[in-house]
Design brief:
The protein is built from 16 helices and seven strands. By secondary structure, the protein is α/β, with parallel strands linked by helices.
């Protein structure tokens, strides 16, 4: 919404679940969106008063978060009807847990008949459900699946594309979503600079750290591998572990690199046994972890050299046939290089 020039606000109307309001406030801080709250036990009043809040704070989109409820709870279902008649929302989205399987269809159908649902948000699609409920919900209610949750953090909430979901389920990857995710999270100028360094074989540990910080914004490595055709099988090589690019493993790697001197990051060949011992002590890791990181970085550089040679050869062939070569978006070789290196296990992965 922000990219579209909108000024959204959240409304904490879940008055039943403990800490629900605080949880929404924390989320609001993370995404820099204000949260309207009132110290009353009346969800309808909170929803009504939020309209005045939106007007006084120049907010043009209100997202009212109501409590989860069973479709058989008549009192709480009536509360939703009252909120609808009071604020007259432009759109009602039902959030459904995909892990409940076909029961999700009954839930969606009842809510749709009672309220008139405009769309569905299907969560936990990163689990084993694999999206079968999405097809059934659409068939039973006619309501489109608008968003899907592919993880617990903010970034994995994605716009639902049926063709892309089918491609993921069939193990064919989802390159378009990967490109969109990369373009929205990775700084293009930094990526362009990194590509030039790779081409000139001037890629250092300092550059690797910068690239790692860029790519870790993308979330789970398993999710990224699932978007790349042919690399979905690498999930098994990761031992079934969902490797979080923002988790403690990457933080340990950052600690090791930050424990090095600028000169050591520029030229790893000068890191002898004495320096490795100092780096391990400074980062709170083992010498063997430092050794593994240095070895993997060396392998990553070798791989980048091979990729660079192949890219140059391909470019020459294309130029010879068509007069000019194709140019990739700068984030893609940047992302591809690092993910290639991540294909092997990190020092801290069991």
């Amino acid at each position: 919404m922000k990219k579209q020039g909108k000024r959204p606000a959240l409304v904490a109307a879940d008055i039943y679940r403990p800490a629900a309001i605080k949880q929404l406030q924390v989320l609001g801080e993370q995404i820099d969106v204000p949260v309207f709250t009132e110290d009353v036990q009346d969800a309808v009043k909170i929803a009504k008063d939020s309209l005045a809040f939106a007007n006084s704070h120049a907010r043009d989109v209100l997202i009212i978060d109501t409590a989860g409820r069973l479709q058989i709870d008549e009192k709480l279902m009536q509360e939703l009807k009252d909120i609808k008649s009071t604020v007259k929302p432009h759109e009602i989205l039902l959030v459904v847990d995909s892990m409940i399987g076909q029961e999700a269809v009954n839930v969606a159908e009842t809510f749709h008949n009672t309220l008139g649902v405009d769309g569905v948000v299907l969560t936990k699609l990163d689990g084993d459900a694999r999206g079968g409920a999405a097809l059934s919900i659409k068939a039973a209610t006619g309501c489109p699946i608008k968003f899907v949750g592919m993880g617990e953090k903010i970034e994995p909430l994605e716009v639902f594309h049926p063709d892309r979901m089918a491609s993921r389920i069939l193990g064919m990857g989802d390159v378009l979503s990967l490109i969109e995710k990369a373009q929205s999270t990775i700084d293009a100028k930094t990526a362009e600079k990194m590509v030039k360094k790779i081409k000139t074989d001037d890629f250092t540990l300092a550059d690797f750290l910068e690239q790692l910080r860029q790519v870790k914004k993308l979330g789970s490595l398993n999710d990224l591998l699932g978007m790349i055709p042919g690399l979905g099988g690498l999930k098994k090589k990761l031992g079934g572990v969902d490797f979080d690019l923002d988790g403690k493993e990457v933080k340990h790697m950052e600690a090791i690199i930050l424990s090095m001197t600028p000169k050591e990051r520029e030229d790893t060949s000068i890191i002898d046994a004495k320096r490795r011992k100092r780096i391990a002590a400074g980062s709170g890791t083992k010498i063997s972890d430092v050794n593994k990181l240095l070895k993997q970085f060396d392998e990553l550089r070798k791989m980048m050299r091979r990729m660079n040679v192949k890219a140059n050869q391909t470019s020459k062939k294309v130029k010879g046939k068509k007069g000019k070569g194709k140019k990739l978006h700068p984030t893609m070789p940047n992302l591809g290089g690092l993910l290639g290196g991540l294909g092997g296990k990190f020092p801290f992965m069991k």
